[in-house]
Amino acid sequence: MQTFSLEDIPFQLDLTVSCGQAFRWQKQNGFWYAPVKDKVWKVRQEGEQLQYEGPAEEELVRYFGLDVPLNTILDEIDTDPLIHAAIETCRGLRIIRQDPWECLISYICATCANIPGITMRIENLSKSYGRRVEADGSVFYTFPKAERLAAEEICSVRACKVGYRDTYICKAAKTAAENPRWADEIRRLPYLSAKERLMTLPGVGPKVADCVLLFAFEKYEAFPIDVWIERILRTKYLGGAQKLSYNKAGTFARDHFGQYAGYAQEYLFGIREEIAGKGE
Q1: Crossing angle, helix 165-178 and helix 100-109, to 10 degrees?
Q2: Which residues are catalytic?
């Protein structure tokens, strides 16, 4: 078991892996486990220390964004009392740097679905097409590579209970397999161009694109908008009863919170139920 010191590094592991940005982490006997790329990671936080097995230290730091100047980011987005309350409650929540391919398919699976449904679809795909890995007596499955899914018929993928998303998954797999540098190309693009590029894929609308750009490409301007976030912006910031369009909501958020609007989204999402409890 290795350790990493979090002295002067604000971090909340439990909140970071359970807040809905990634779907494969599960807690067993006080540790969080997840298959990350080709290995199973085992991590827990004890005060200002991370105890871990699986990744190298540099992999751990990169994945959890521990090299990101979080306090500087939070100072920049701390523009009003509501986001200030969210920062006070959730300080240490970090945006994970996910693998672009897995993140893309995960959020295609996330359309019109709740977290248990998303998790089920991802696990089914991994069990069918990934590699079996054991850790501490439990069995995990790595996420399937694009080339593996690209070789499958749509009907086979449909058996993973992904519903209408089967066509989108297979087409995304073929695109990624035919162009192994697709992620590098998107990473080099500015936010809006990267979003347009992702949205050329079937099944990738504005929200899926924003999620993938935020959680896999470090495009922190991306501001994914679900029903919770739209309601928060509409009722707590814009004082209106009429539902906001996706573009209007995103533009307001980037103007209000700045270049790290995506971090503001995650922090507001973290206190969404508390906000809802206060009524509109």
Answers
A1: 160
A2: 207
